Amino acid sequence: MSGPELQLWVSDTLKRLSHSGFRASFSLSAHDRDYARSKGKETINRHAHELLRGRIGDAMPVKDGKQTPYRGHPVFTAQHATAVCCRSCIQKWHHLPKGQELSDEEIDMLSALVMAWIERDLAAHPLR
Prior knowledge:
By secondary structure, this protein is mostly helical. Helices cover 64% and strands 0% of the residues. The chain is globular and about 45 Å long.
């Protein structure tokens, strides 16, 4: 999935997630917004890819269901908001089965979703 197809999937998925009270309750802390702005989109995107690959990319991630903190990095918060926090949530919301390693394309797709959520949060909370 790439280009317009990916953008449509991200948009549709964010809309679907917005109907979940739990998923919609997340927003970045002021510290995380400052961090994301100071590092820039390219760096945060690289972090998203690295964190997703390292924490949820394996077929059987270590401590699955407890491996993603709720705070400490903008990507962590975005993972919970977008249901990319553990393999159970990924299977439920994104239909990517547990028990098999995520492909590079799937990591790219989930990273795009995380980044879109972060960018939307930043836009909703502009600098004063």
